[in-house]
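To assess whether ligand presence alters the predicted conformation, the chain was also submitted together with zinc ion. Input:
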Amino acid sequence: MGMKKLEILAKSSSSETPYTVECYLDENKISVFCSCPAGDNRLLCKHVKKIVAGDESILYDKNQKSELQMIIDHLKGTEISVLVSELNRQESIMEEAKRNSEKLKKKLKPLILNELEQ
Ligand SMILES: [Zn+2]
């Protein structure tokens, strides 16, 4: 089995024009290139993260669900899929902690930053 190339269009949060995510699948490996500015700098951008996590919300074209599924099937049982799910888990813990700390600050602020009556 040779190398397989898939091109997935990913939604951009700042523009109507999608980014192109090129995925090269070989054996149990993958190599991904995203055309966004972060991807250009070889950073792990959200488009790549969502694609390797099989998150359909990043798809610009919903008809590309089957391509996304191919990537999921390809990564099944690899260290990559284990790391991706652990990363997602940690990021949702972080999001929840962020929300909770904002709530606490909101409660704390009026108790500390008030004017004391003399
Ligand atoms: Zn990207």
